[in-house]
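Q: Predict the bound structure with zinc ion.
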Amino acid sequence: MDTRNLKKREWLEFTFQNTGEAIRFPVGTIYGKNPGPTMVVVGGMHGSEFCGIQAAIDLFNEVDPVNLRGTLVICTIYNLPAFQNHMGFVVPQDGRNPGGTFPGKLNGTFSEVMAHHLNEHVLSQADYYVELHGGDIPESLTPFVMCPLTGNAEVDQKIDEMAEVYNIPLIIHRPVQASDKPASGFTKVALRGVPAILTESGQQGILNMDDAKVHLTGLKNILIKLGMMDGQIMNTVRRTYLDARAAIRSPIAGYWVPFVHLNQKVAKDEVVGEIRDYFGARLMEIRMPDDALVTVVRTSPSVGVGNVLVELHSIVRHE
Ligand SMILES: [Zn+2]
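A: Predicted complex:
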């Protein structure tokens, strides 16, 4: 079959051998009229982060194969079980966050087998990879791009180029190291020498079309930057570069009340919120470990041990 100049919609289907349950991924492929690299885009790594999912769907519908050089492979919703069950972060079958399951295992738990199949059949095709996130149900966040720092100068430079044209103001660099330990998909892909970024726009499990559009603009800008599409790169933001992420996690279960807001600069030892009991009595104050910028705030009061309360970064430089 001559696949040039074609848009294909398909379900990749696998079976979880332990229970016989199906593992299904909706994958759209756009075969460009002219040759070029393959960019892979995955939405719904977290199934209730709808702005990333919407952008993946919009990208599939808006890119015309006639105008594409190379191939665009788009998994619109990776974590379909979470999407269908209104769940934040985790794959319901085993309660695992997919962000810590790659490259997956063929004989693992449900989410490890999912990761294995996505890795084998979708991520393995990538010359470039963008993982779309959109702020899950219990979190508010300010849009950012996460760049893994792999130590491979050529790869890291391409990663920076992709991040810089995404047209999102906050760019975070996080050192990553090759390891046998499972990690997020974009980290593992980058460590294989394939430029990969994670992008966040949207929050609190809400489908907000403006936040989805931020992703779509960024994705199109990357295609133009990589020479896969013609067009004008949209550049309307001033960028701030941040260092590696630190997350404040809850040491206890209880009722969380935040006192800080997104994009707030908070000083070391300042109280960022408190955990109360279900009658309103304070159990614990949560303080900043360092001076930093707040990028993610847990907005759900329901908190368990180890849940992220606040994510913060230090500012390295402004553009
Ligand atoms: Zn996410």
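A: The first helix runs from residue 50 to 62.
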